[in-house]
Design goal:
Layout (H helix, E strand, L loop, with lengths): L7 H11 L15 H9 L3
């Protein structure tokens, strides 16, 4: 499925509970969207 959340903090709060083994997270955007990926990796997800 597709999930849209307007802020990084929203994503970091919601996404980890929705992820399952072997899921793929694709982050699209402009600016510092790579910061979201780094934050998820830092949390062990």
């Amino acid at each position: 499925g597709v999930l849209w959340l307007p802020r990084f903090d929203d994503v970091l709060a919601v996404l980890p509970s929705r992820l399952r083994p072997d899921d793929l997270v694709l982050v699209l955007g402009a600016g510092d969207v790579d910061a979201l990926g780094r934050a998820l990796v830092a949390r062990g997800r």
